[in-house]
Amino acid sequence: MPDPITVLGLTKTASEGIKEAMDFARNAKNTELAQKLIDVYKEMMLVVETNQELRKEIEEMKKRADVTSRLRFESEETSYFLRREGQNDDGPFCGTCWDIDGKLVRKSRGEFGMTACNYCWNFRPRRR
């Protein structure tokens, strides 16, 4: 995958080239060419925007894959625990929120041995 700075540099160079060509078309009073260049510029900006969105989506997918590989599910609590190297597992996190929304929402420990998610209101008795 190309370096974002390189892509930005190419975009800037292409953008400058299109603007120079538009100035040339205006000076030559060629409105058809100027309009085509404007269309090309709009398309290029759309490609740049799409590229940025896809890069962001790829980063989010990488982060989710990393978290998923470190999760341990406990069915009695319907909770996930996040493994941490050399430390105790972190959690509990709501199983429903992770499975449906991909969100790690910490469950709170309440009265009567229950853990509850304050986001989706999923609750289960705590293991003894």
What order do the helices and strands come in, and which of them pair?
Layout: H1 4-27, H2 31-70, E1 71-74, E2 79-82, E3 90-94, H3 95-101, E4 107-109, E5 114-117, E6 123-125
Antiparallel strand pairs: 1-2, 2-3, 4-5, 5-6
Helix pairs in contact: 1-2
Describe this structure in a few short sentences.
Helix content is 55%, strand content 18%. The chain has 128 residues and is an alpha+beta fold. Helix 1 (4-27) packs antiparallel against helix 2.
Count up the domains. Answer: 2
Strand content: 15-25%
Number of strands: 6
Q: Give the strand order of the largest sheet, numbering strands 1, 2, ... along the chain.
A: 1-2-3
N-to-C SSE string, H for helix and E for strand: HHEEEHEEE
Your description of this structure?
The protein is of the alpha+beta class. 55% of the residues lie in helices and 18% in strands. The protein has helices at residues 4-27, 31-70, 95-101, and strands spanning 71-74, 79-82, 90-94, 107-109, 114-117, 123-125. The strands form two sheets. It has a three-stranded antiparallel beta sheet. A three-stranded antiparallel beta sheet has the order 4-5-6, with no helix packed on it.
List keywords for this structure.
128 residues; alpha+beta; 2 domains; three-stranded antiparallel beta sheet; 6 strands; 18% strand
